[in-house]
Request: fold
Amino acid sequence: MRSIIDVSDLSLDELNELIKTACDIIENPKKYGEICRGKKLATLFFEPSTRTRLSFEAAMYELGGNVIGFSAAGNSSAAKGESVADTAKTVSCYADIIAMRHPKEGAALVAANNASVPVINAGDGGHCHPTQTLADLLTIHREKGGFSNLTIGLCGDLKFGRTVHSLINAMSRYKGNSFVLISPEELKLPSYVKKDVLAKRSIRYRQTTDLEGTMPELDILYMTRVQRERFFNEEDYLRLKDSYILTPKKLTNAKKDLCIMHPLPRVNEISVAIDDDPRACYFKQVLNGKYMRMALMLKLLKEAGTL
Reply:
């Protein structure tokens, strides 16, 4: 049974196929309005989420299907001690496809190994978040017209940011891209990502603590929040949480066609004064995420032979 745990589970051809399907959904929504009638998506969210959970639910409803699930671990049998494996086996009896978010790295893989229906990883701890990356890719496609020869700045929490790890993995597969890794020393990109992805693929990158100094060279600026829930020490979080705040002044030397992205939710890292700037693309990402989740669910259901 095919599941998607990491964006690397999808080939370049498959990524391009999903982009093509999502664009067709945008152009011809009525064509897809009944395609999943009678199908059920189970959303198993063991940690809080607004965008991802509601995006999956909206995606299935707009495909004509239905949704079951829970929005917190306390609302499930996990509160009684049930394992992820048993939850996956149980929910497979009720649903045609599962979207799962869990605070522990690897939990989605455990679910996929035990479910009898496709499982989509909706975020597993600080590991990866493949469907956010699909939203990011559609946004880049629509804003930049392609995925090659771009300078991508990643700013903020690069240590725990699963969206950052997944995006690096995806964009490293296209030609001519380079990365500028902007973070405090304590939140630098993990060495395994640098070794297993960037170095392995001979991708150009540099690390810096200077956001403004790098601005003129960037085609894409991907801002992230410092994630309170990933810290064991409250003092460390408070010290680092406002390390980078993007303001209109800091965009003075930025390219006119800079694409400003953020996986959301934001806290202080992007001033609301930037929301009306035509370069602000983070709410476009939200909408694009729905279209890509529609495309991905269609693909997996078809491959499972249930559509």
In short: The chain is about 35% helix and 15% strand. The longest strand covers residues 40-45. The mean pLDDT is 91. The two ends are 14 Å apart (CA to CA).
